[in-house]
Amino acid sequence: MTNQRRYRLRALVVLVAGFLAITPSGPAAPGQSMPDDGPRMAFWRERMRRADSLLSAGAIGPAIDELEELRGSPPVRARSEDYPRVLMMLARAYAWWGDIDRSIERVAEALALGYPALREIATGEDFVLVRLDERFARLVAEAQARTAPWERLWKPSLAVDRWRDTLAPELRAAGVSALWSAAKHSYAWFERLGESSWDSLHVATLREALATPSTLAYYRVLQRMAARLGDAHTMVEIPPELVDSLDYAPPVRTSLVDGRALVTAVLAPGRSADRIAVGDEIVAVDGLTVARHVAERIEPWVSASTPQDRAVRCYDDLLLSGPADSRVVVTLLGADGVTREVSLERAWCRTDLQGRSAIDIRRLAGNVGYIGIDSFDDEYIVSLVDRSLERISDASAVIIDLRRNAGGHTLLAFEVLGRFIGGTFETHQWETPVYRAYFHARGRPVEWYREPAGFQAGTRPAVYSRPVVLLVGARTMSAAEHFAVAFDFARRGVIVGEPTAGSTGHSLAVALPGGGRARITTTRDYYPDGTAFNGSGVVPAVTIRTTRDDVRCGRDGVLDAALLVARSLIDRSAARSAGPGTGGEDAQ
Fold this sequence. Notes:
22 helices; 3 domains; Pdz3 Domain; 2-enoyl-CoA Hydratase, Chain A, domain 1; about 15% strand; 22 strands; four-stranded antiparallel beta sheet; six-stranded mixed beta sheet; alpha+beta; about 600 residues
């Protein structure tokens, strides 16, 4: 590897490590729009981009000069979240430069200020030569001695990965307390708990958990505890051994449409078509009305952020779920007005019912391209989008469909969005609760750290510059919502569909006894200007919902509406190109 490539990779690592974090001048009110810190943010980012550019070009000496100037600046030294990172960037630069003494000095300063990435220092490739120096080894050993007790504190020490049909009482209690403690110190939305006390819920859940007869019953108790927090990214994931006990369903898809639970697809026609049809309304499940079935058997265990998110989980995902190979009795109201009762076997794992494909590309009427993206989970999605755009590069407009996209990696979502936005675009801002023991003792248990809006530059010029329509729905969440927020704020096109799930945020993973785990949402996300969307969803400019007639006729009414919007944008674009006096804008 050439030195230049090596320097470029190192600079990238530094950036990914979060160098551009900004410490707020004061805590923002949670859930409210926050003041813009743009000018100061732009200044520091420009300085760091300059240093990054120098490092990428292999100009280590000028980069060191730039960084040392930042290191000596009082405003930078006052930024407790970032100053240690400045020091470590300098330490790397000096190591590459061959100045071992100064590299060690900067490492010592960073460690004294609590730089957290000790493993990176102790084993990282950047410090191969520096590690030969006894002073460096001594620094690392002393830091390891200081941090070891805290690492032991946060590292799971119980036999949490061992599956047992019934867990020991002390393990059950430990799992409840692990969930309680992680949420108390890290959860970002405690106002969603209402007037309830998290401590009281902890005690009540301990009592329930200790009385459970099986690991399955125990995990249901944990799921109900997490669901009380009211966030889709805050949940308890069951061990793999319990999937057969909960996550199987008949080969049909269902959804809440016009306030009714409808069958929207039959996936095994040979076995079910004679008993159940698309458009049938499910009026009862195992002897209870649908409303009671959801309220009593499903909803208490569902983690959701908004009413639309909850409806998807209860009616689309879990309505007919249960143990593998069991049967569910469904009362159906057909299009003919006749009610009938059907017994269906739960033969399919629920994940197999979703029928997702990585990408769907089509050309619609009026030379409108269509790209459906169901996930941002894997890197290959970017290359698939590139290939799709090559096929429809001459389309007069493009519809991007994220209605079935539950997220994945936000950076991949932004990489895809960069294909439609030239240059740099603004991304969401976020905040997280910060617990400081001393401040707690002084009556201030929680403060808020705010990260201003980010700026994302595509790795290549925009591929498609004509009109774009973005389709979203209640299943659109997480990284897909980050995509929608950046798209909306950049005014790149028109959003059509239903409000999104309203759930994003970085999750803390907590290992639980028996092999499951909990996830706790640690951040609140906002539009770049501070507008909230967590807990409400990204609201489309054109709201359109699927109707009962759409389902029965096999029609995608929402896509049809998006196509009309796309044609309108095409006409408007043509009018602007024609200019005044030619029947263009003056005619509208």
